[in-house]
From TrEMBL:
This is Peptide deformylase. PANTHER family: PEPTIDE DEFORMYLASE (PTHR10458:SF22). Belongs to the polypeptide deformylase family. Keywords: Hydrolase, Iron, Metal-binding, Protein biosynthesis. It catalyses: N-terminal N-formyl-L-methionyl-[peptide] + H2O = N-terminal L-methionyl-[peptide] + formate. Its EC number is 3.5.1.88. The active site is at E138. Its cofactor is Fe(2+). Fe cation binds at C95, H137, H141. One of its GO terms (biological process) is translation. The gene is def. HAMAP family: Pep_deformylase. It comes from Sulfurimonas crateris.
Length: 175
C-alpha cells in the first residue's frame, strides 16, 4: 500500500479521526505502510489522518543516540488517551504535513498515555522529552489540530505569509 502525505492547507488535516474498532489485517497493512512512509520521509511520527485515513492511529519512532531508527523501537498507538500530564516545555516542532517550517510550541513535559496496540491489547506508556512532545503532536492530528494552530496570532500570520511564498517558489522551480 503506497501512501502519500497530506500537506497543509488540505482540509482533511482538520478532520477529527474516528476510534478504531477492528484490529484486523487492514489495520496492520495501514500501520506497516505508515511506517514505510514515515521513515521514507525522514519523520519521527505520523498520524493516520496525515495519509488520508481518519482513524485514531499513530506511529512514533524516535531516533537513538546514533540518529538511527530501528523498527524494534517503533511505537504504534491505537485510540490513545492522555491520562496524566505534568510540567511544561517548549520545543521547536516541524511536521511532515507542513514541510520546511519549524516553530516553538509549548507542550506538557511528562505524560501518561493509555492506548491499544495493533492487536487491540491495552498498553500504558509514560513519556518525557522528545517522545512526550511527539506523542502530543501526533495526538493533536487525531483531533484535527496542527502545530501551527498553537501559534500566537502574529506568528500564525507570519507563517501564512512565509508558507505562501515557499509554495510559490516550489511551483516556480517545478516549471
Amino acid at each position: 500500500m503506497k501512501l502519500t502525505i497530506v500537506e497543509y492547507p488540505d482540509k482533511r488535516l482538520k478532520e477529527k479521526s474516528k476510534s478504531i474498532e477492528k484490529f484486523d489485517k487492514e489495520l496492520h497493512k495501514l500501520l506497516d505502510a505508515m511506517y514505510e512512509t514515515m521513515v521514507g520521509s525522514n519523520g519521527i511520527g505520523l498520524a493516520a489522518i496525515q495519509v488520508g485515513h481518519a482513524k485514531r492511529a499513530l506511529i512514533l519512532n524516535i531516533p537513538d543516540e546514533d540518529d538511527e531508527q530501528s523498527i524494534d523501537t517503533l511505537i504504534e498507538m491505537i485510540n490513545p488517551i492522555i491520562t496524566q500530564t505534568s510540567g511544561v516545555t517548549t520545543y521547536q516542532e516541524g511536521c511532515l504535513s507542513v514541510p520546511s517550517f519549524y516553530e516553538d510550541v509549548e507542550r506538557h513535559e511528562n505524560i501518561t498515555v493509555n492506548y491499544q496496540d495493533r492487536d487491540g491489547n491495552t498498553k500504558i506508556i509514560e513519556a518525557d522529552g522528545l517522545l512526550s512532545i511527539a506523542i502530543q503532536h501526533e495526538m493533536d492530528h487525531l483531533e484535527g489540530i496542527l502545530f501551527i494552530d498553537k501559534l500566537s496570532y502574529s506568528r500564525r500570520k507570519k507563517f501564512e505569509k512565509e508558507y505562501k511564498r515557499m509554495q510559490k517558489e516550489k511551483k516556480l522551480s517545478k516549471s
